[in-house]
Design goal:
alpha/beta; 9-stranded mixed sheet; 11 helices; 14 strands; globular
Length: 368
């Protein structure tokens, strides 16, 4: 087992930091960081750029201040190998051509076009390969990409905002605003970092959200996904304006679907559940994975929140909790069937708690 040095940890930490620069723009590619070190000095840095090209290793080699020959390369993910969908030279081949001496790779890339081939190329060329450094950190960083590649299903994060007693709106429907302006800006950052933002027709009919990123700078607007089983959405709904929208339906007429398509809207028909005639949420998630969507954020009401949880397709909940109490008559977060016993409850694992303005942001993974 490789004994990594303090310099190794410092350089991989820097690579992980660099990777974050591409988080919002590389989809469907993973956002990767790379650092090239020679004689204990950084001579080149890079990260995967918008649209997934250039890759981090190619970017770092291009930015080298001197020859990379004899250097050590730190990459947060396995350098790629040539495959059917390659759009340029493979990073493993570029590193071999640069005559680097050692590659430290945090994580194996499970994408079937790479899947060990990049590491094998390096070893065959006589380059020292050390893997696994800070792999847990990179697993967390790339959780959405890794899940989509490994399982075919995007990583789904459900955003909710509520009072301390778990209420999202008054009984009369008033909900603006329970949480603070600071929390709302943070939500826009979540949107920016997602491949897509999803909501349901109930939310669109009541609130008419645009679901765009507006409060912060944004290079790439996420795809907007509307679950609308019967295609009840009105032509003037904000979520349809400007395109970049997918409507997922189950029983909507083909005539209405074609009208939406003519307006530039992507309409996808997903198999229905046997009785309810609703969108089959499990099948929908597999369809979205096939569209190469890594990270999906859900912003919707209690009914769809409950349905998604019951279907077992939610991976994480981010809850913004305001320092207020609305009372028993106010609307709740999750419409779920009554539980017969406490053993039937949905279990969570808290992973982060922080304060955003006056509100708390609580992040919890769904226990699988």
């Amino acid at each position: 087992m490789t004994r990594f040095t303090a310099l190794d940890y410092a350089m991989m930490s820097r690579a992980i930091q660099l990777a974050e620069k591409g988080r919002a723009v590389t989809t469907p590619n993973p956002f990767v960081g790379c650092v090239i070190v020679k004689h204990g000095r950084i001579i080149g840095e890079g990260f995967t750029r918008a649209g997934g090209r250039p890759h981090a290793e190619a970017d770092a080699l291009e930015n080298c201040q001197e020859s990379a020959e004899g250097s050590t390369v730190y990459s947060t993910l396995e350098p790629c190998a040539l495959h059917a969908n390659s759009r340029g030279p493979a990073c493993s081949d570029l590193l071999i051509a640069a005559r680097v001496a050692r590659v430290v790779s945090a994580l194996h890339d499970p994408f079937d076009g790479v899947d060990g081939k990049g590491h094998d190329n390096l070893v065959r060329a006589g380059i020292t390969l050390d893997t696994g450094l800070m792999s847990a950190e990179v697993e967390r960083q790339l959780k959405a990409f890794l899940q989509r590649v490994r399982s075919g299903r995007p990583y789904l994060t459900m955003k909710v905002a509520a009072s301390l007693d778990g209420k999202t709106a008054l009984a009369n429907g008033l909900s603006k605003w329970i949480t603070s302006a600071e929390a709302r800006r943070d939500v826009h950052a979540m949107r920016r970092d997602s491949c897509a933002v999803m909501t349901g027709i109930g939310t669109v009919l009541v609130d008419d959200p645009a679901l765009t990123v507006r409060e912060i700078p944004c290079e790439r607007q996420p795809l907007r996904i509307l679950l609308d089983s019967r295609l009840d959405v009105a032509d003037g709904a904000k979520i349809l304006l400007g395109g970049n929208t997918m409507v997922v339906t189950a029983t909507g007429t083909e005539a209405r679907a074609n009208t939406l398509r003519a307006a530039g809207i992507d309409v996808c028909r997903v198999p229905t559940e046997a009785v309810k005639g609703k969108v089959d949420l499990t099948a929908m998630m597999q369809m979205l994975g096939g569209r190469k969507l890594n990270a999906i954020m859900v912003e919707t009401g209690a009914k769809l929140n409950g349905s998604l949880l019951a279907a077992g397709v939610v991976d994480e909940i981010v809850a913004y909790v305001a320092p207020s109490i609305l009372g028993d008559d106010a609307k709740g977060l999750f419409a779920l069937e009554p539980l017969a016993s406490l053993g039937d409850k949905i279990m969570l694992s808290f992973s982060d708690v922080c304060q955003i303005g006056p509100d708390l942001r609580i992040t919890a993974r769904i226990a699988k």
